[in-house]
Design a protein that fits this description.
The chain has helices at 47-54, 117-121, 140-149, 168-174, 191-212, and strands at 33-40, 63-65, 84-86, 90-95, 100-106, 126-131, 153-158, 183-186. With 213 residues, the chain is α/β, with parallel strands linked by helices. Strand 6 (126-131), helix 3 and strand 7 (153-158) form a beta-alpha-beta unit.
């Protein structure tokens, strides 16, 4: 079945009906290149929110209700307001140009689900590390894993209403980042802000490619 052109049609008698993609979810005919990007970060930093806000298609999420089983195992930060969490991945898509699209994969934040990262990082060109300045410590292991894998990344400081405001260089020092790693402020709830983060990553990847050349 051609994903680009298939339509939902009624099944013939005795056959199984498999609906085609919605018209708004089909890949544009002009697209010639696709890039895989992962959005990572600790528990509750806004990864699902970012994928949902910026995706031009209906995002795929794997959120499950948080239960008593997670007490003492998962980070309970924000547990009074957060009722669901990603257990596998989030997925979305955004067109950067008529020819280029980004496939977005949001990773689960709890450490007990990090074994899923191996598959999600396969073939990824780069990553966005979403951080919460109120608890930078949850980002240390995430950044370390990216550095070990050699995956280029940018830091996106997600703005929370009660979050502190730190100068960029203070954040860089606190996270022990190299001088060339971009740090950008963002609001993961806003499509334009999330798109700016992705554009920052793409420019960074382009600069790295030129430098290697």
């Amino acid at each position: 079945m051609d994903y680009r052109s298939s339509d939902a049609t009624e099944a013939a008698p005795g056959s199984v009906y498999i609906p085609g993609p919605r018209a708004e979810d089909r890949m544009p005919e002009t697209v010639t290149s696709a890039v895989k990007i992962v959005i990572v970060g600790g528990f509750g930093v806004g990864k699902t929110t970012m994928v949902g806000s910026v995706s031009e298609i209906r995002p795929l999420t794997t959120e499950e209700t948080m239960t008593q089983a997670g007490i003492g195992v998962d980070d309970d930060y924000g547990s009074e307001t957060k009722t669901a969490t990603t257990v596998a991945m989030d997925f979305g898509r955004i067109s950067i140009t008529d020819e280029l699209v980004l496939y977005l994969f949001g990773t689960p934040g709890q450490e007990r689900f990090w074994f899923l990262w191996n598959g999600l990082f396969e073939g990824a060109l780069g990553a966005v590390v979403l951080i919460d300045a109120r608890r930078l410590e949850v980002s240390f292991d995430v950044i370390g894993r990216l550095e070990e894998r050699g995956v280029p990344f940018v830091i996106a400081n997600n703005a929370f209403p009660d979050g502190p405001s730190y100068p960029t260089e203070e954040l860089r020092t606190a996270l022990d980042l190299d001088a060339h790693v971009p740090i950008i402020e963002c609001d993961a709830r806003r499509r334009a802000s999330s798109r700016d983060v992705l554009m920052t990553l793409m420019r960074y990847l382009h600069e790295m490619a030129l430098h290697r050349a």
